[in-house]
Amino acid sequence: MWERRTADRVHFRPLVVLPIRIDEDISRGIEQNIGTQKVQNQMAAMDPLSLRHQPVDSAIQIVAPHCDIVSRLEVVPPSALVRGLYLRSLETVLQRAGRAQLYRDCFEGERWSPVRMYPLRDYMIRLALAGASLRSPEKVHEGMHDIWRTNATTFAASLLGRTMLRLLSHDPVRLTEQALAARRQTYQYGHWEIVRHGPRAAEMVYREEYLWIESAIAGGAVGTYEACGIEAKLETKLLNRFDGSTMITW
After folding, report:
1. Which range among 19-23, 24-28, 159-163, 168-172 has the greatest average pLDDT?
2. Do the beta carbons of residue 85 and residue 115 sit within 8 Å?
3. Does residue 130 carry a pLDDT above 50?
4. pLDDT averaged over the chain?
5. From residue 41, how far is each of 37, 44, 50, 65 by CA, in Å?
6. Most buried of 105, 130, 153, 183 (most Cβ within 10 A)?
């Protein structure tokens, strides 16, 4: 059991690998070959023609060195679904930020129905690549955080969002309940629930959440309260990769 805490934004420390001492000449040769191969793989993955030829494989290759997308995709059940409105929003966010090129190199021209349900795996691959496109492959988690944060504020600026927020603003409890209801309407997997901790605190608990809780989900929580102008402290913690919670106090 392990736990990572974050407030608003998540910071990731680079992994440091300590080498095992073997014959120096052999070790140096192996390292040079591995380094050359990594550079060649990265160059091939970033070539626009290669990206368009095998977009899904190329997207995974770009982000895999910087997040656990491969192992996550292996455990996501085919029954896990998400509405197309989230898939459609990715390119929109990137266009507004002027950072859509990498994403377009793989997935330009895709069309998603906003109300239809699609495999969560499709969304996870595109979300990760969108995060890499917005920030950089090395900062994919920061990018996913900002995309979900922006999604919340973009919704708040829409006609529907403005109508709802007039009713929910200045009421953190109702806002949290609405966020839970929206999640149930747009995702078909896992389980979220609200646990109250007194009159000025609530906790959103996540179970079997296959998206990145520490970056994407945390960003969405921050953006939701920002959009309503509610000054709240949010702390997201992990029990494991797929279970955790966000504590909200105001």
Report:
1. 168-172
2. yes
3. yes
4. 81
5. 6, 5, 11, 11
6. 130
Kindly list the structural domains of the chain, giving each domain's residue range(s) and its CATH number in brackets, ordered by start.
5-9+150-249 (3.90.1520.10), 29-148 (no CATH)
Greatest extent of the chain over all pairs of C-alpha atoms, in Å: 70
Q: What is the pLDDT of residues 232-248, one digit of tens each?
A: 999 999 999 999 999 99
- Please tell me the total number of residues recorded for the chain in this structure: 250
The C-alpha atoms of residue 114 and residue 19 are separated, in whole angstroms, by 49
Please give the Cα distance from 78 to 163 (Å, whole number).
35
pLDDT at 123 over 70: yes
Q: Which contacts of 210-213 are long-range, i.e. CB under 8 A and separated by 24 or more positions? A: 210/72, 210/75, 210/76, 210/80, 210/120, 210/124, 210/242, 211/120, 211/124, 211/127, 212/67, 212/141, 212/144, 213/238, 213/241, 213/242, 213/244
- Among residues 163, 93, 83, the alpha carbon closest in space to that of 131 is found at 93
CA distance 188 to 108: 26
Tens digits of residue pLDDT in 222-234: 998 887 788 899 9
